[in-house]
Amino acid sequence: MKYLSDFILVNKKLTSAGDAMLRLECSDRNTGLKALAEAEPGQFVNVQVLQSHSTFLRRPISICDVDVENGILTLYVKDAGAATHALCAAKDGDVFNILLPLGNGFSLECCGEKPLLVAGGVGIAPMLLLAKRMRAMGITPTILIGAISKDRLILTDELSAHGNLFVSTDDGSMGEKGFVTQNTVLEKDWTNIYCCGPLPMMKGIAKIAGERHIDCHVSLENVMACGLGACLCCVEDTADKGNVCVCKEGPVFNINQLKW
């Protein structure tokens, strides 16, 4: 079920790149708590951006974390345009109208005993809730994240608290030097791979998973507008269903469904 609820910004943390980690508290405890309780890793929200006069459509943001007990929704926002810049510039007390939860997330029903979570850039954000849910199941995931440099990595402390963290950086400033797809942790045996990040990275991970017959799910980041499957902006041509809306059928897909 989808819910429309107001959330109040209670804490903001800026990164060195100017991006923002937003902690939002639901003001409508009835609707907001129901929405948070139903949120799954890999799903997203659509945020109304009243702070930007040039922005008319809501902006889709991946769910980074939820704290149902305290009514807190955490979002990681990359400063990439007028709308996201306005979100990153928000102040404590600002109110956001949010539609959530949207899309289909990562399935934990198919999670094996040795899952590997792979992410890069802003794709790291949804891995936090996924790792937490796996730990709640008694499974300790291995997490591989990558970025251009150490100062562009996010959530390293938080992810380390819920799994075994490995890192790749292009410049070698932290972890192994090189792309995520070149990290030696990929050479180990994995029952499942969950992936989110830049498209070339996900295709590279999908290729590795396919060659080794590892069950692999990826989260697509097609351009979205409505988030409900009505505008057809985010259509992806799949192998099993033809053209589907990523916002409704995804954003998470098994790689066997994709024409990669």
How far apart are the termini? 31 Å
Number of extended strands? 15
Label the overall shape: globular
What kind of sheet is the major sheet?
7 strands, mixed
Strand sequence of the main sheet, in spatial order? 10-9-8-7-11-12-15
What is the overall pLDDT average? 95
Weakly predicted, low-confidence segments: none
Tell me what the structure shows:
The chain has 260 residues and is of the alpha/beta class. The chain has six helices and 15 strands. It has a seven-stranded mixed sheet. Strands 1-2-5-4-3-6 form a six-stranded antiparallel barrel. It is globular, with a radius of gyration of 18 Å.
Structure, briefly:
The chain is an alpha/beta fold and 260 residues long.
Please give the structural blueprint:
Elements: E1 3-14, E2 20-26, H1 29-38, E3 44-47, E4 59-67, E5 72-77, H2 82-88, E6 95-102, E7 115-120, H3 127-136, E8 142-147, H4 156-160, E9 164-169, E10 176-177, E11 192-196, H5 199-211, E12 215-219, E13 235-238, E14 242-245, H6 246-249, E15 252-254
Parallel strand pairs: 7-8, 7-11, 8-9, 9-10, 11-12
Antiparallel strand pairs: 1-2, 1-6, 2-5, 3-4, 3-6, 4-5, 12-15, 13-14
List keywords for this structure.
alpha/beta, seven-stranded mixed beta sheet, 260 residues, globular, 19% helix, 15 strands, 6 helices, six-stranded antiparallel beta barrel
